[in-house]
Fold these 3 entries.
Entry 1:
Amino acid sequence: MLPSSLEQDTERKADLLKNVPLFAGLDAVEIQALAEVAMVRHVPSDAIILLAEEEGDTLFVIVGGRVKVTVMSEDGREVILSILKDGDIFGEMSLLDGKPRSASVISTAETELILLRRPDFLSRLSRFPEMASKMLATLAERLRRTNRQVESLALLDVYGRIAGTLLQLADDQGENSDQGLTIAERPIHQEIANMAGTTRETVSRVLNDLERRGYLARDGRSIIIQGPDRLRDDFFHLGTPVIK
Ligand code: CMP
């Protein structure tokens, strides 16, 4: 007998869940149990998935696509805290502390998500120490990044902030080639501006200048950083000097 569409659906969800780093320590039976309660959702680009300040009891896993985590000022200015992609999770903060959503999450490409409800997620988290420590590592990494971003916004000039944003993007999604470190599908200038705390016009001007001075090259939506060390040394001076 052919499996019913419900069974096919659960099988597909189990396949997707298996490949999520957070669930890598779960055995097949657990993955299957999680697949039975998980929901899949497709969203187009520019969809608001989570709204800051709303109550929420769902954890989201990105199966494919890309989202931005943002906070918005009253006059509509947006600060991008992070860009998340395949395998990343979001929505864990409200799940863990029961408070409203700390930020909004908006898709920047067509995105496929797996949704898990609070009790389904928390029961696994308490039973699987490996999952809990992965979760803590994710939170620690986010805090490190956010610290770097705060430091950068407070201490660097606009060249430093834009250089830092490019180096962070390269760290997340860059690929090495003979020409340098390529960020394929870079965010649009407005998004780079919202990550670096500046305006779209300034991003265009600084990128043109950095290109003219041989720090980077552009090819459609790609940015190729020619010598990331040079970009870092010349513009991105962060961190307290170590006293020896
Ligand atoms: P939650 O507060 O439930 O909803 C918004 C989500 O955005 C939050 O959980 C985290 O998953 C994510 N988030 C909030 N702040 C950051 C940040 N600084 N870096 C990356 N992700 C974040």
Entry 2:
Amino acid sequence: MIMKVITKSTEETIKLGEKIASQIQGGDIILLQGDLGAGKTTFMKGLAQGLNISENITSPTFTLMNVYPLKSSNTKQLVHIDTYRLKDEQELIDIGVEDYLGKPNTICVIEWPEKLPHLLENKKTTIVALKNINENQREIIVEF
Ligand code: ADP
Ligand code: MG
């Protein structure tokens, strides 16, 4: 299934993330594709809100991976990965990414997934591609 949406504000992208959150489950790996400023982290904020996470979401640019426990769900945790500053895939393996990736009790969301060709090989993924149209508009394609 493919859906294409144009959002006209930050808030609309958050709302879209919240909506998509109701369609995902443990084991899912969501790939957020798009350039700097395309709205990947903003969309992730919506996903987190939709999963009832109240913590403020910031991109784990330096820590590489943030783990948010889920309260009201069969799924144990939401993991946010940002590979923007990743040197190689081993760096993520060293901090235990394989304990989370594709595990039935975990939802993973990855910014800059192109940097993980081996870790994502043969894994079923959901692609969210974000494109900057102008200052406040983003084209967002969700491919389940
Ligand atoms: P990325 O993680 O892709 O680098 P961010 O989500 O961190 O992008 O940043 C997107 C920026 O663009 C934010 O400052 C956000 O407020 C702004 N923005 C403006 N319009 C939109 C929109 N329609 N959707 C998402 N972000 C938007
Ligand atoms: Mg980001």
Entry 3:
Amino acid sequence: MSNRRDFLRTSLLATSALALPRLSRAATAALSVSGKVPGGVGARVVSTWDFGVPANQAAWTVLGNGGHPLDAVETGVLVPEADLRNHSVGRAGYPDRDGKVTLDASIMDGDGRCGAVAALEHIAHPIKVARKVMEDTPHVLLVGDGALEFALQEGFKKEDLLTPESAKAWHEWLKTAKYTPVANSENLDYHRTVQNLGMPGGKNNHDTIGMLAVDAHGRLAGACTTSGMAWKLHGRVGDSPIIGAGLYVDNEVGAATSTGVGEEVIRNAGSFLVVELMRQGRSPQQACEEAVHRIVKKRPEATKDMQVGFLALNRDGECGAYAIQKGFTYAVCDVQQQDRLIASPSLYQTTYT
Ligand code: SD4
């Protein structure tokens, strides 16, 4: 316990060391035009991993101007979905075992409305399709060919999402002929990363983006989007498009999202669990910790070498995060602190290999 406290303290210190440059000029302009967040203080957007910083900045151009949190999170996650350097979200995501790029995404409003797509091919912005499922159908989740058909009917363009770089990595992986899907590749050491992903891991090699936002009125929303595990079995669906697993939002309480090995998160209805723990009085930090402990306690051996991380935000704008393994980061943007990258505390203190 005291070790964990020490680590928490270290993480907080690390937070200031990781503080990033201030908001982009566009986002700063959005703030200064209004002077402060319209409607008062308390609006905040948080998201998983380092790529959450530019994504939060995009979301803030909406939230900081008094926009709805739902529009903010959709706008925010479009950034990594479009980023070709990112091989775990949207276009340029690593393909499955058969060389197909299949995308998962979900979006949820704090009033309970939600939409999702899973194993969607050929559409560069699955989060936009998820929102259309929410708004234009009586359903919550569309998958595979049905999801693609729906997207095309809605006017989305069919594209090849496999970039030459991702195809090259897939061909490298095929040489090993080993089925070893990898999540949280940035936590792997260089050699294992090369072996499994066919390219060096590094700063641009991140995972799912889960984004949560609250406005000054306590309205919440969340979005989650990913290409899932590299080299997964064709048809595999992770936690990200499963409401209650990869994402859950409730205006009465707060919101949660997850990253890491989706199977463990689904088994434990992870994000719903975090929100329910907050409903029972836990802080976002305590709720994330308890959810991680629950997952590890159920399968201690299996989870020893695996990453799962949760990020939570309550309706007062307080946030927290916790992961099994070291290396999980999350980005925070609000009117007081602007953009920051924070090292999440974790259960184990060693980076796993
Ligand atoms: C999945 N949770 O498809 C996603 C992958 C991920 O960090 O988040 N990796 O299981």
